[in-house]
Amino acid sequence: MSLGLAPYTITYFPLRGRANTLRILLNDQGQEWKEIVVTFDEWHKGVLKASCAFGQLPIFQDGDLVLYQSNAMLRHLGRKHGLYGKNDSEAALIDMMNDAAEDIRGRYVTLVYSNFDDGKEEYLKDLMIRLSKFEAILANSKTGFLVGDKISFADYSLFDILLTHLVMRSSCLDSFPNLKGFVERMSARPKIKAYLESDAYTKLPINGNGKQ
Ligand SMILES: N[C@@H](CCC(=O)N[C@@H](CS)C(=O)NCC(=O)O)C(=O)O
């Protein structure tokens, strides 16, 4: 993050939430950005919400470009920073991987905000099936990345949801050596390591309701 002349701005709640993949990606790519933190009190006044294209945060600004929808933001950064594969086929596969990660994230968000305490064990059973699919994909990867021979925005997405689920159930990757290795490699990338050890990460809750 930076306080200087950062080209990018993220407007979001004081959470990891849907901004965390963006922050991991930007850190790893050595990018600077500004954060505008929206408190829940401010949000509940409704003025900002009414001004958002789809009534929700995050907002991502790149100069005059204003984006809503976190996955559109990831794809934008993927195009700008060479994180979208080396040809159209790889780009399509990266979209597919990111959509599968989003499927997990969507289910996680529903659990957290609707039925966390009663639904968690059932949720984790289904999660294992979904993770086993990513495990098989990584088992077939020659490079350790989801697609091709270079990191893509989908790798950051998967990494973020794996970190989130490791908080929920620290043993959730125990039967998935490739996913475990993936998390270890991503966590060891120097700029990601520094971010994961920083207050900017450790002091932020994952979700807005204290569930994790
Ligand atoms: N599909 C959207 C979902 C955005 C979303 O769910 N935002 C939540 C926070 S993570 C929000 O703004 N909640 C407050 C509200 O809906 O009033 C995205 O990926 O950006």
Compact overview of the structure:
The chain has 212 residues and is an alpha+beta fold.
Helix content: 55-70%
Q: Total number of helical segments?
A: 10
The main β sheet shows up as: 4 strands, mixed
Small-molecule binders here are: glutathione
Strand content: 5-15%
What is the number of independent domains? Answer: 2
**Series of H and E elements:** EHEHHEEHHHHHHH
What is the CATH class of the largest domain?
Mainly Alpha
Instruction: Give the distance, in angstroms, between the N- and C-terminal Cα atoms.
Output: 25 Å
Mean of residue pLDDT values: 97
List keywords for this structure.
single chain; 212 residues; alpha+beta; Glutaredoxin; Glutathione S-transferase Yfyf (Class Pi), Chain A, domain 2; 2 domains; four-stranded mixed sheet; 10 helices; 57% helix; 8% strand; binds glutathione; Glutathione-S-Trfase_C_sf; Thioredoxin-like_sf; nucleus; glutathione transferase activity; GST_C
Description:
By secondary structure, the protein is α+β, with helices and mostly antiparallel strands. It has two domains: 8-82 and 194-202, Glutaredoxin (3-Layer(aba) Sandwich); 88-189, Up-down Bundle (Glutathione S-transferase Yfyf (Class Pi), Chain A, domain 2), CATH 1.20.1050. Helices cover 57% and strands 8% of the residues. The chain contains ten helices and four strands. A four-stranded mixed β-sheet has the order 2-1-3-4, with helices on one face. Helix 1 (20-28) links the parallel strand 1 and strand 2. The structure holds glutathione (GSH). Glutathione (GSH) binds next to helix 4.
